[in-house]
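Posted in: Structural Biology > Protein-Ligand Complexes

Title: Requesting predicted complex, guanosine-5'-monophosphate in pocket

I'd be grateful if someone could produce the 3D structure tokens for the following input. Sequence and ligand are given below.
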Amino acid sequence: MRKGSLFVVSAPSGTGKTSLVERLVELMPNMVESRSYTARSPRPGETNGVDYNFVNRETFESMISRDQFLEWADVFGNLYGTSKADTEEKLASGLDVALVIDVNGARQVRQSGANATSIFILPPSPSILESRLRGRSQNSNQEIQERLKVAREEVKAFNEYDYVVINDEFDAALGRLKDIVSGCCARVPDARPDVDNIVATFELK
Ligand code: 5GP
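-- Reply #1 --
Done. Output follows.
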């Protein structure tokens, strides 16, 4: 059976990556979004096992010491991580997996030697990012300033990624993401063994 492909998606907070990836997964029947572990508390409306696997700090730290994360990072003072076992299981079952993680986590995935395609989503400007952060009214003024400060650093990491998508307009950005994912799955190493099976039938006399 064909093994799934791994995708890493990063973007500064407020860029719209969550909505874009949610929609992408709806459009790509073979793709699932990874569910991260986090030691932060659920926000109103968030459900354990749906938005994240919410665990306490002690459990998270014991998962780190048992090497259970493909990557993990401290983002805005909270711990987030991707389970190695969950990811491997999904890939082995043939599903493409999207990890929506920060730039530090993306670096760890690269260093792990995992075969991943990475995509950076770039907000079109700092002022548009600020108005998106304010518009979703999830963060205090101080948090928004902190996120903008971090974003100024994060955008510099774009050239560590295989692809960059500017989220100027939702549908256009979604279309570009879809093209990238479809293109990657058609690359010869990713298309095997389906392609090998078809080619083998041509060799039958
Ligand atoms: P939030 O608390 O708003 O849900 O997420 C904050 C940030 O944490 C997101 O922008 C996302 O990039 C990052 N994040 C979420 N899950 C993971 C993860 O498993 N690993 C890493 N490295 N970052 C994550």
